[in-house]
Every structure is written in C-alpha cells, then in structure tokens.
Amino acid sequence: MQAPAPLKALFRGALLGATLLAPLAGNAAEPTAQQQAILDAVQSRAKQAQVMNDMIFSFGELGFQEFESSRYLAQVLEDNGFTVERGMAGIPTAWMASWGSGKPVIALGSDIDGIPKASQKPGVAYHDPIVEGAPGHGEGHNSGLVLNIISALAVKEYMEENGLKGTIRIWPGIAEEQLATKAYYVRAGYFKDIDAVLYAHVGSDLGTMWGGNMMSGMVSVKYNFHGVAAHGAMDPWSGRSALDAVELMDVGLNFRREHLRLQQRTHGIITDGGDQPNVVPSEASVWYFFRETDYEHIMDLWATGDKIANGAAMMTDTTWDSEVLGSAWPIHLNKPMAEEVFNNTQLVGLPEWSDDDQKLAKALQSELGFEPVGLKTEMGDKLMGGFPAKMNYGGGSDDIGDISWNVPTSMLFYPANMPNIIGHHWSSGVAMATPIAHKGVVAGAKTQALTLLSMMTKPELLKSAWTYFDEVQTKDVKYTPLIREEDQPATWLNRDTMKIWRSDMQPYYYNPEKYDTYLEQLGIDYPTIR
C-alpha cells in the first residue's frame, strides 16, 4: 500500500464521486457490557502491544526476508494457544495461525515488511537513521499484525470464558511492498473455508470504507533480455547488447505513455544493466509495475509491455522472457462489514494525544515543508463508499485485493502514523515506535476486536456480508488470477539487500527485558525536534 496516511492516498481522485452514508443506526453512545469487556481486555494488553510494535520496528526487514519478525510473532501466538502452520503457500516467512473450532472462521491479516533505505530513529523530527542506508519501517507495517494479535487474544479470552464456538485465524502479509504473496495464498486454498477477513492497515485516522473503484490493481513483471557478450572495444560488433534492449524498452514505454489511459501508472527500475563497461552485456533486466483500475485494463497494459519488449528484442537481435514477481486485484470491500467496522470506530474514537505527540507531528510536518496540522483530533461521522468507476483515476495498490474477491473483506485504518508526511520514506517511520503508534495500535485493536466478536456472534451480519459478496460484488465480475500457472513466489527478492544490512541492524534490535521502550533503548528524548 502506498502512503503513510493511506486514507489520503486512497481518496485521491475518488472523493468527488463518493457516496456518504448517514451515521449508521444502532451506534450506541455507550458500550454494552459485552463491548466493554472486550475494550477492557484490549486495554489490559496495551503494554504487550507496545513491546511487540517496537520489536518489529527494530527488525526493519524487507519483503520475503521477514524472518525475525515472522518468527517472533508466530511464537507469540503459539505461546497463547494458537497452532501455527509455517511455510504457507511455499513462502518461508509466511504462516497461518489458528485457534478455536467450528464455524464461523474469521481471519485477521496485516503486513510486516519494511522499505529500502528507510532506517530512522523514532521520535526524531528530522532525518536521523539508526543505520545509514539500511531498510526500516517507512510505512508502518510494524504495527498492523500487532493490532490483530492483541484484538484476537482479547476475543479468544472472551470466547473461552463464555463458551463460544468459532475459529480465529491470523496471517501475515509477506512482501506487501512487492505485492507478491496474497494471490499465492488464495491459489494455495488458504481462504476456501474462511467466512470473512478483517484486514488492517496503518493510517493517520480511525476509519474504513466499502466498495471498489478506489485504488489500482497491478501486475509486477520483470523482463529479462538475453544477448551475446563481446569485448566492448576490440569487437563490439560480435556482441548483442541486452542492455540496449532494456533501454529501448524503457524508451518505447515512455513514448507510449501519451497514448495510455489517465488511469494507468507504469513505473520501473533496471535491476541488471550488465557487469562492466568493456563487456557487451549479455544479460539485462528491467522490472515494471503495470497499474490499472480493473482486470481487463491491467491485462491490456501488460500486453502493451510485451509488445514493446518484442520490438526492443527485434531492434537489438536479442531474446527475452519475463517473470511475474507479484500482482494485486483492485480492492473491493464488503459493505455490511464496513458498516460494522464504522460503528465500532465511532464507539472507540481517536486516542487522546499528548502535547509531546502533537509537538513531534507538527515539527516533522514543518521539516518536510507541509502544513503543520499535527495529529487528527476529530473523526468523520459518515461512512464512505460507493465510488463510481469513472472517478477512479488510479493510485496505490494492495494485494489484499485478491483476497477481497474470494472472501468478504473489511479494511480498518488506524491512527498509528501522522498526516502530511511522505509515503515510502524515512518520515513515515518517525512515529512508528513512539506513543503515537502505541496509542493508535490500541485504538485500532479495540475496533478490530469489537468487529471480530460481532462476526463471531451475529450470524445475520455474516449472512448479509455474503449476500453483498454474491449478489452485488461478484454478480457481474468474477475473479481471475493475474498470476500465471507457472509463476511462483519470488522468495529471493531482497535477499542480497538484507544480507548486506542485517548484521549492522542486529545490535539495534529491541531488548524489552532491559528497556521499557525502544525510545529508551536508543536514548531518544521524546520528542526530539530542531
């Protein structure tokens, strides 16, 4: 997902066509006894949430290489009575944890991977890396699965005390920044017996939405060109440059942009440009994200890429093949489930921010040249949804889209980060191991726990969710995977990068037995501003 404040990015280009529902009926001013028990159970785990959040932040691992994060979180669940199946869908860092028995089966998911070159000391309102050049949590994915685990433990406790049947499952979104795994989870059958999915993503507000047409889907394709090596000075005519083909493909795509739809987003990097200047490159690769707003246009854009690759190969007398490194269907969120999530956000409300929290946020916003608005203190009172397709001009992606077209799915945004900062950037890590994140995770966990309990105890809600899924969402649109039968998870991604940085990062892993918070371990005065 793009953005440290996903709601802002999510609404871009769609707000004008949004349907705003009136405040929903049944939104009690005060929690029921059952709801209060859940809220208290989550609040009692606030310290555990802080420790887990700070621990994952300190690992700062990139997609497919989340070994420390995955091991730690799976162990927490096993210690609390969950069974864990590791190696989910053939992905070493993926797993599915399960507790309980019988129906309904409700699964909770969120992501755990970081961003390259995003190392940043938390609580410091200017660029100050923990390890210069290393990866870090420059989006806030250290917090979402923590939120889900805390909410699941609270509901598990309540179910045990009250003899309730049902199954809770928890899974990590591996390599979400590469959009590289959830389609494989679906293909491997992990969602066939699941009745609903509760997803969570970090934001700067507490909220949700319903429907589709709010983000892009995409396919991630790496084109590998194959030529012939030769001496670059003595006999370059004997060579066939794969790098020439890569550069010509880039030129071709850039010229083609003028004649593509406004909704498309095509961006790429050269991952292999050869070895050294005096050797004609026999191998070269370029990696593109082809984003569009529906399946048909994604496939058209991909076909355009293939045609341009053919032209580049013809011009250079080279050959090519391609690898799919990831994919994401456009997201569609379930309306009845969103209504339930929305009611619960209204019940929970935003955290109470301290003067220091606001001071950090405003200082960072000023540092970045943005309006110093601080942290949000007021929530909207209307549920957003029903974005028309004609108003969707594209944007970010999240591979939860594949799951949302197979199982009724909700998405909770929770206020663990700040508004008016930069996505996929060191600034998006500043809040993520501070009281801002700690409070935001607890607020989100309370909302998610209330929703999870509702899904367990209100069969009419689950029935409504499936009615919407069958009769509205999938009535005319059916899921067809973007990944091909021969494609496999690209588990090698980021391996070399983490090999470079892991040993430098390890001395900074959080030690909760010695330090109360990660801020304390790093010796950071909160907040640190210019």
TrEMBL record:
Gene Ontology biological-process entries: folic acid catabolic process
UniProt entry keywords in alphabetical sequence: Hydrolase, Signal
Cellular component terms per the entry's GO annotation: cytoplasm
Protein's UniProt keywords contain Signal: yes
Pfam families, per database record: M20_dimer
Protein name, per record: Amidohydrolase
Extent of the signal sequence: 1-28
GO MF annotations, alphabetized: dipeptidase activity; para-aminobenzoyl-glutamate hydrolase activity
Record organism: Parahaliea maris
Record-linked InterPro entries: Amidohydrolase, Bact_exopeptidase_dim_dom, Peptidase_M20/M20A_hydrolases, Peptidase_M20_dimer
Family annotation (Gene3D superfamilies): 3.30.70.360, Zn peptidases
Residues covered by the Peptidase M20 dimerisation domain: 216-303
